[in-house]
Amino acid sequence: EKGGFDSFMDKEIHDQPQAVADTLLGRTDATGALVLDDLRIDESVLRAVNKIIVVACGTAAYSGHVAKYAIEHWCRIPVEVELAHEFRYRDPIVDERTLVVAVTQSGETMDTLMAVRHAREQGAKVISIVNTHGSTIPRESDAVLYTHAGPEIAVASTKAFLAQITAAYVLGLYLAQLRGNKFPDEIARLLDDLRAMPRKIQTVIERGEYVRATARSMEKSDKVLFLGRHVGFPVALEGALKLKELAYIHAEGFAAGELKHGPIALIDEGQPVFVVVPSPRGRDSLHSKIVSNIQEIRARGARTLVIAEDGDDAVRPYADEIFWIPQAPTLLQPLLAVVPLQIFAMALATAKGLDVDQPRNLAKSVTVE
Ligand code: BG6
């Protein structure tokens, strides 16, 4: 069943282009407009939404962080992201105009289920983004948007994460269409950008051997840091989580802008730091800001492992290693940038002789609070 791969995780990383393509499939009508048949919430209710709260745990919560950047940008609705267990127990402000989006691969995570129940008791509408058909959370939601990643066997999530991000983009574009934030041709263009992503993800996977070789050379690392800005920030958090889960290495993700407010104290000679670099073609100064961050940490001895877009020559002088990814709009870049980090964690864990499919102490689906 591993399809010739050494582990389910390796297979599932290779399944990612398909998972994203399948999650995008059948979402438009003959005119090219987005239609979400399984979203059975009255359009007038969705038009009246004045706040979105994404609730989830673990990797699924990081897909929610990406969703926040995309949905706020496209729809101009405030989006909060909260760990489901924190949401449930802090007396959150939720009412009939709040849309709660619950993201879960299994559809069974108890913390997320309790958050869904609490939100509905307060009158909120709940849309769940779920991979597993017939699970509990979609049954208890007002509507469901299924990801089509197929069964995910490895405990640490990979393809479900990319499918969750994709579903969140689809939801964001659908809300933008419904609420008139974007013209139909703008939506169509963004959908075209999204449909180009599976092929680019495939390219990143094909370049994986360089990442694996780097990981094998870092078998002795005991601490790895990850930096990102904007949507690169949740990618950094997910890269750190993968390394903790799979290789049992102390890893932390930071917003790069936070460096000088504390984390830079962690940098000493040889400290490996991954940096997710946004597209240099973006309009604002995001890119130059992160290039300065790379310079700052390198000047203090960091070994910089940089994920950058093809053609981004500005990072070359400051990178010890560069993992190139194809060009893509900044908001969509997480679908590419996280892949080398998944491969890195898997390869490092494998080099340490660990079971990447069944890490110690973890369960695929946590059905207790
Ligand atoms: C954890 C899993 O226990 O639950 C993670 O080990 C996962 O991989 C998290 O991200 C949330 O699970 P789900 O099924 O709600 O997405």
TrEMBL record:
Keyword Cell inner membrane in record: no
SIS domain sequence ranges: 41-181, 214-359
Domain of life: Bacteria
Catalysed reaction equations from the record: D-fructose 6-phosphate + L-glutamine = D-glucosamine 6-phosphate + L-glutamate
Subcellular location: Cytoplasm
EC number: 2.6.1.16
KW S-adenosyl-L-methionine (keyword) present: no
Entry annotation: catalytic residues: K364
Signal peptide: none
GO MF: glutamine-fructose-6-phosphate transaminase (isomerizing) activity
Keyword tags: Aminotransferase, Cytoplasm, Glutamine amidotransferase, Repeat, Transferase
Top class in the EC scheme: transferase
Reported function: Catalyzes the first step in hexosamine metabolism, converting fructose-6P into glucosamine-6P using glutamine as a nitrogen source.
Oligomeric form and interacting partners: Homodimer.
Name listed for the protein in its UniProt record: Glutamine--fructose-6-phosphate aminotransferase [isomerizing]
Lineage of origin: Bacteria, Bacillati, Actinomycetota, Actinomycetes, Micrococcales
Boundaries of the shown chain within the full protein: 265 to 633 of 633
